[in-house]
Amino acid sequence: MRFFITTAIDYPNSRPHIGTAFEKIGADVQARFQRMEGNAVHFLMGNDENTIKVSQRATELGVEAKPYVDDMARQFQDVWKALEISNDDFIQTSEERHHIGCRKFIQKVYDAGDIYKKPYQALYCDGCEEFKTASQIVDGKCPNHPNKPLREVEEENYFFRLSAFGDRLLAHYEANPDFIQPESRRNEIVSLVKTGLQDVSISRKGFTWGIRIPFDEEQTIYVWFDALLNYITAIGYGTDDARFEQIWPADVHVIGKDITRFHCALWPAMLMSAGLPLPKQVFGHGFVYRKDESTGEVAKMSKSLGNAVEPMDLIQQFSAEAFRFYFMSQCPFGGDGEFSFERFADAYNAGLANNLGNTFSRTLSMAVRYFDGKLGSTDGVDCRAWCAGLDLKALADELRTLMTSFQYNVAIQRIWGEVLDAANKYIQTTEPFKLVKTDVEGTRAILLNLADAIRVVAILIKPFLPSTAKTFYDAFSYGEVRSWDEVSYGDVASAPRFEALTVTAPLVNGKPAPLFPKVETDASK
Ligand SMILES: [Zn+2]
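Above: inputs. Below: predicted complex with zinc ion.
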């Protein structure tokens, strides 16, 4: 089955911070999981370049807009690569494929009678790039940008008849309960649409950076209308219709909770007008807030607040895997999370250095020390003794549900709390480091069990920690993790057999190098 997943496209007026990275990792985990389920995944990301802010930023820097956005796109993609994000495509909305598709789409909506022109007079915030209604203005100012005076703007703009789609949208939410997830976001949107939608301005006059409207070349398409279209122009709408029909509709748009209403009301209405199928789901993830260690204060991260954390700093200090582990285990994807360096280090030491990394290193060390890495055949050995109390098949199925519903932190709790825990308890109760003095064959059976535990763990952590999963598999000559189903056997008879299981590990002073070296924290000093 095809699985098309997208993230929001980002403004390239500043470099990505860890809040942006949170979204990309969450989408990447889903993409990787769906690939393990045998689906033909198409994972799209990109940058939102046709905005006034971007051309203003380029002007500030004294460069042309296009080379500026191209350079930023490279910088963004460097960060995504460093975080092991496995996107298949990256669209820049200044690309020709996007311009062609947007012009085709807006013409279609115009022909359907859902676009009209009217004089417009309102207060505009340059910071938000949107007109403000009376209810959004506090003391004559935009609450988000109190230092930027609102501008009174009057011009003839094109409007999209969003108000005409309320009933159809409500009917769609009703018929498709999973369309908006998680549930709390769904309730927000339903009540928003019930109170009545207003038509939205979708064009601007007098801008040269942006996409010109085919039926009025003096106007350019305004930011939201253009940005949302990246999801279809990237896969060929207007330039490769056969490909577009093969991939669309999206299975899920992964976006931040602040832009849920654009994706759940405006976007489906636009698609209805153009006669295109709607995406199957919109998932509005939460935010990561920055906790100040000295004051204990929690604040939203932003460039203007000066408290943004650069992903590259954390990747260099720890690793990409540590970064992914923190955000996926400590921040519920559908809710909000907190970030502080202290919490990051604590989660790393507890989950990766002491637990996952240590289990792996101990098993490796014993296999190398006692058997020179040659664990031999699994024939006649009960390799499932380590998880005797666990129904792995049932657990794999439950985890599958948690993964598809983006409950990653709960999935990680179960993997660590049940599977890794079973492996660690097994080491404690069987004590192979003592048994080896009296019973070599018994010790070999224990190590084959631990090898199996590591094999199962590698499968389950692969969407979260892809390179750690590979390290585990490589060390035990297992080949490659392919499918989630490889976990799902409950009895000894159906467990995979190995004729000659070998362990290879790069040794440092006779010991395997630690996978996640422990870091010093204030608490451990
Ligand atoms: Zn504003």
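Residues 341-371 form the longest helix (31 residues).
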